[in-house]
Amino acid sequence: MKVTAFFFFAGCLLVAQLSCSKFGNTLPPPPPDPCFNLNMGLSGNVTNPSTSGAADGSIAVTAAIANGYSYSINNSPFQASGNFNNLSAGNYTIKVRNTDGCSETISFVLTNPVPSCSGVTIVVSASATGNDPCGSGDGTVSATATGGAAPYAFSLNGGVYQTNPVFTNLTSGSYTILARDANGCIGSSAIVVGNQPAGPLFTQVRTLIRSNCLYCHGPVLSNGINLNIDCNIVTGKDRIKARAVDGLPTPMPQSGLLPAADRQKIIDWINAGGRFTN
Ligand code: HEC
């Protein structure tokens, strides 16, 4: 009997409490959320870095009611002041917290000043190595630049800028080299890529061709190959060797092969590379 009575009693209490929380107004209301609808009225003043890359910018955050606030920049520890100094360019978020632990954030962007090129003279000096006039373009230009802010980038005739100051595979002619410094200031210089002179082995071959072959392979009668043009000697070297050294299919000159010493000059030149510059 006693046990049954206890359960009965406990059951009544439970029902009473459920009823109370569901329908009653007797419990005290929860305290109002101190952060609800809070508006700190945050604003700020920004001073950008004085020169590109300098860490002397600042942010000053003010709140409409600046009472008991503390401030944290980019999640660093909170401080009492809303002033942040020694800042470089970048994105900053400042969290403002009151004594109740409520917080708001405000974000700023510090930018580097756009550098001025007035008064800056970029001096470009360029040097060239010559081109083989019978090759496919093997002249080079190398440049150096001074007077601006390193690093420099270089452009040939206004093309894509590159960090490498050397340009290769150039044919002979005039070029403009531009150098652009770290602030975007530009200087330029003109440079001429000339032709390399004829090499000594080529010169020997050209001399013997001029005296033995031009009569039938010159500007007037070319007979398939105008040997008065230097680069025709270069491009036709295998055919020249076949005729004038090996006598195949028929010897050239037609009257009979050249003296052995002259044929050796052709062999030596071809073995050295057979270029205009050899
Ligand atoms: C007296 C005239 C004469 C002289 C000198 C002469 N040739 Fe020829 N050569 C010809 C004639 C004609 C042909 C075209 C017929 C042939 O292929 O045999 C020819 C053809 C050639 C060809 C082939 C042309 C081709 O298109 O492939 C070569 C190479 C050549 N000669 C080289 C020489 C060289 C090198 C010399 C000097 C060492 C020389 N010849 C001297 C008359 C001459």
How many separate domains make up the residues? Answer: 3
How would the global form be characterised?
rod-shaped
**What is the C-alpha radius of gyration, as a whole number of Å?**
44 Å
- Small molecules bound in the structure, each named once: heme C
> CATH class of the largest domain, anyone?
Mainly Beta
Largest sheet: number of strands, sense, barrel closure: 3 strands, antiparallel
Number of helices in the DSSP assignment: 5
Number of strands: 12
Name the poorly predicted regions: 1-21
Helix-strand topology string: HEEEEEEEEEEEEHHHH
Straight-line distance between termini: 125 Å
Give the oligomer, counting copies of the same chain as homo and different chains as hetero: single chain
Helix content range: 10-25%
Q: Can you tell me about this structure?
A:
This protein is α+β, with helices and mostly antiparallel strands and 278 residues long. The protein has 3 domains: 1-114, Sandwich (Immunoglobulin-like); 123-193, Sandwich (Immunoglobulin-like); 200-271, no CATH class. The protein is built from 5 helices and 12 strands. The protein has helices at 2-23, 200-212, 230-235, 237-244, 260-271, and strands at 43-47, 57-62, 70-73, 83-87, 90-97, 103-110, 123-129, 139-146, 153-156, 166-170, 173-180, 186-193. It is rod-shaped, with a radius of gyration of 44 Å. Mean pLDDT is 90; it is low at 1-21. The structure holds heme C (HEC). Heme C binds next to helix 2 and helix 4.
